Amino acid sequence: MIELRDVTKVFPAAKKSPGAGAPAVDGVSLAVERGSVFGVVGHSGAGKSTLLRLINYLETPTSGTVLVDGQDLGALGERRRREVRRSIGMVFQQFNLFRSRTVLGNVAYPLRLSGLSRAEARERAGEALRFVGLDAHARRYPEQLSGGQRQRVGIARALATEPGVLLCDEATSALDPRTTGEVLDLLRRVNGELGVTIVLITHEMEVVRSLCDHVAVMAAGKVVETGGVHDVFSRPAHPVTETFVRSALHDVPDAATLARLRARHPGRLVTVPVGGGEDLSRLFREHDVDFTIAHAGVTEVQARTLGGVTFELRGAERDVAAVLARLTGEEKAVAR
Ligand SMILES: Nc1ncnc2c1ncn2[C@@H]1O[C@H](COP(=O)(O)OP(=O)(O)OP(=O)(O)O)[C@@H](O)[C@H]1O
User: One GO MF term, please (predicted)?
Assistant: First the structure.
């Protein structure tokens, strides 16, 4: 388990500029359970990378405590801290592979550093490459591989030392959507088959939706919201979270979409969350109201369906009003 207690990081101000001297990470406390996939999401500059680098002490906190499996990294001696850090692998946005080494050489490198013989390192590296499906490419050089393959090498390198935790720094941000999906599938296997705890940072809520079980939302160095992914998606509390959730769910038409819908649908528009208890077709029939589906955004979050359907309602004004009252009350729908 990883625990941060009231962790703050202030970088020395390089020059007098607005925001210089403000904490990059500001009093953050959070806990990552063993075996979980924990996402940290936030806009550029929110402090995500710094937070990730504090977990393995690539950055030292200005104040606060970082605990890994109950061990306070700040209180450990250099040797012991290095051992704990070796149990934490890291994956980078730009892969950070050596161009001059083969794929196998890249994956074997940290193993050699940790003291394994050349033969042992090559064997373990080969196993890691098999896990990520790239053993056939062992003798190639990074530039002969696609971006997605390079990231899989990066993941194999991080896994070769058999870490209990993997920190992923925007691991899919340099990749196209299809390759992103492949890398996310691989990370899911790393968690599911190897039991590795994953902490990943991203600015894409879609990555959190498809991979994570817990999420923390960061803004201006602080964690503004944290919780189970399904809970945060279904009830975002902070405005920053709300924006991120909407970007992944597309359940509520944005202002431009709404303007287009209004032009096409002269009736009353109402957005109804999916999964409510009401038998909608019966409700519409009872009140003699006609409907058309004008817009829908529905997706799976942690194996449960979330989303919203926007209906256009047509009928006598009183009937439409009665339907709207029922929907906005019990079904938590929003009239547009
Ligand atoms: N080594 C450093 N020295 C000085 N300031 C830094 C350093 N690293 C980060 N910062 C500052 O700390 C703040 C948070 O940066 P950080 O990279 O952690 O954010 P981020 O959310 O990861 O953003 P991005 O997605 O753009 O990487 C920013 O204002 C950044 O300029």
Answer: ATP binding
